[in-house]
Amino acid sequence: MKKPRLLTSIYAKFAILFLLIWWVLNSLTFGVTINIIANSFFDKLSMDHDQLMAEFRRVRTITGLVFLASAAVGTIIILIAVRSIVKPIKRLSKASKEVAKGNFDIEVKVTSADEMGQLTADFNLMTKELKNIDVLRKDFVSSVSHEFKTPITSIKGFAKLIRDNPLTDEQFSEYTEIIVNESERLSVLSSNLLKLSELDSKAIREQATVFSLDEQIRKAVLILEAAWSKREIEFDIDLEEITITGDEHLLQEVWLNLIQNAIKFSNQQGSIKIGLHQSGELAKVEITDHGIGIREEDKERIFERFFKGDKSRSQDGNGLGLVIVRKIVEMSSGKVYFESESGKGTTFIVELPQISPFHSA
Ligand SMILES: Nc1ncnc2c1ncn2[C@@H]1O[C@H](COP(=O)(O)OP(=O)(O)OP(=O)(O)O)[C@@H](O)[C@H]1O
Ligand SMILES: [Mg+2]
To answer: Where does the Histidine kinase domain start and stop, copy by copy (predicted)?
Structure first.
């Protein structure tokens, strides 16, 4: 809504109202009094003293009555005016109580273009935003519950099978393996949720240190050895020696998540290329895989919470990795983007300033 113009503002309304009341009262009082004086007083100048005094008293009584009448008219005008100002305030107060109860489906009618109208429009905007946040929160809670429910159901099912049935050695080790994997998944999910909530609530403070980015990336590859050796993946690593100032612990999460994705979405015996180069003032990291790539329709959504593209490969993930990556990179004043072709492969690119002015994203 537009800002109210001076003439339609409450200031102007009050000013006009008081001028009007002032004018009505004055003109009633003085107009009537002067009329009486003009009509009767001057005609009776020839009266004697007693008659003159009686005439003065009559004029005084009439003047008093006119004063009373004009005060009554003024009071009525003020009451009507105040009611029209208070009414929208009462409507807003009633609506605020509804919002406090959690009812966001409420809209107060904007009836004027003054400050009150502006306040009402702002109130409506606020409830709309609150409603959106509420929908997001409910979505989030239902996604989290869903993500927890699947592994818990599977753990429970296989634990019961082990408890209630005589099993062969092979079955036993297969079922316990599933239970271990699903527990691992639950543990990663809860630690990722915790990380996200810390990043969201800005509970993480900058722990800026100077460290070698190439070493950090090499370390990330080593940490993930179990995953890539199982898939027999080859690495082509080309890292320039670059030191960077930033939060070492948080940035390690970025490389772990991106390399983990590259491994997960690569084919057996695939290859992954990791490059680190200086690009102007920026350190540029490129992680390229030749795996399944990202489908056109998924490209806009991969940074959304809980979004998982290829369901068969993303079984062991929760769709939180890239959300964490983006948050950390943006907090480090960098940016992350990707190029991908379905069926051919994907390159994730991270650009970071070498001295990262850490801020809350
Ligand atoms: N290198 C990649 N190649 C192909 N698809 C990818 C790649 N990286 C991410 N994606 C797509 O983006 C989705 C989201 O990735 P993200 O890392 O956030 O979740 P995830 O890997 O499925 O689970 P999590 O990281 O929580 O374990 C993936 O499910 C996948 O569809
Ligand atoms: Mg991931």
So the answer is: 143-356
Q: What distance in Å separates the CA atoms of residue 34 and residue 31, rounded to the nearest whole number?
A: 5
Question: Total structural domains in the chain?
Answer: 3
pLDDT, tens digit (0-9, with 9 covering 90-100), for 77-118: 878 877 887 888 889 999 999 999 999 999 999 988 888 889
CATH number at residue 244: 3.30.565.10
Instruction: Give the dihedral sign, CA 49/50/51/54.
Output: positive
Position 126 in a domain: no
Residue 109 lies in a domain: no
Nearest ligand (C-alpha, residue 326)? 1
**What is the CB < 6 Å shell around ligand 1?**
192, 257, 261-262, 265, 289, 291-294, 298, 302, 307-310, 314, 317-322, 346
Interval 286-338: pLDDT, tens: 999 999 999 999 999 999 988 988 766 656 788 999 999 999 999 899 999 99
pLDDT at 3 over 60: no
Q: Which residue range is the domain that position 10 belongs to?
A: 6-101
CA 298 / ligand 2 centre spacing (Å): 14
Q: Which atom of ligand 1 is nearest to the CA of 298?
A: 31
